[in-house]
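Practice problem 4.
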């Protein structure tokens, strides 16, 4: 990431101003474009920024590495793309992992492609879960969202 930051900072190429603004939203450990879109929907709505792909558990007792993690509130947000439904084995693995997270005291919110099409609904789902876990920040704002 340091190389990317340096390249954008020192470039004079067309579009570099836009790239510099976008760099403010780049995070390490992100593994898919959908994770980024989901994270940005939450952040642009005014929710706290979750940590991407944080390992939960210790070396001897690994539980999971969810897509987005709100550590202080023990809330995780998972994007389930089509590959999560592609095979019975993958689906069974996902269910067992979620049950292990819940047994360890984590609240798990699953977002699908359909859910991403309704960003206000998914933001409210996450906000309610955070509130249940002690978040006392302001409610979401949707000034950034233009449904046209």
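Answer key:
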């Amino acid at each position: 990431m340091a190389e990317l930051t340096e390249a954008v900072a020192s470039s004079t190429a067309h579009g570099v101003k836009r790239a510099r603004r976008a760099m403010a939203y780049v995070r390490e450990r992100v593994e898919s474009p959908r994770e980024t879109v989901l994270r940005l929907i939450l952040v642009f709505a005014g929710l706290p920024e979750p940590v991407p792909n944080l390992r939960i558990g210790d070396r001897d007792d690994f539980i999971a590495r969810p897509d987005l993690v709100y550590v202080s509130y023990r809330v995780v947000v998972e994007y389930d793309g089509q590959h999560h439904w592609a095979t019975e084995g993958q689906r069974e693995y996902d269910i067992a992992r979620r049950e292990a997270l819940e047994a360890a005291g984590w609240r798990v919110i699953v977002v699908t492609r359909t859910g991403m099409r309704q960003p206000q609904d998914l933001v409210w789902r996450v906000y309610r879960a955070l509130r249940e876990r002690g978040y006392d920040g302001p409610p979401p704002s949707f000034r950034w969202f233009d449904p046209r």
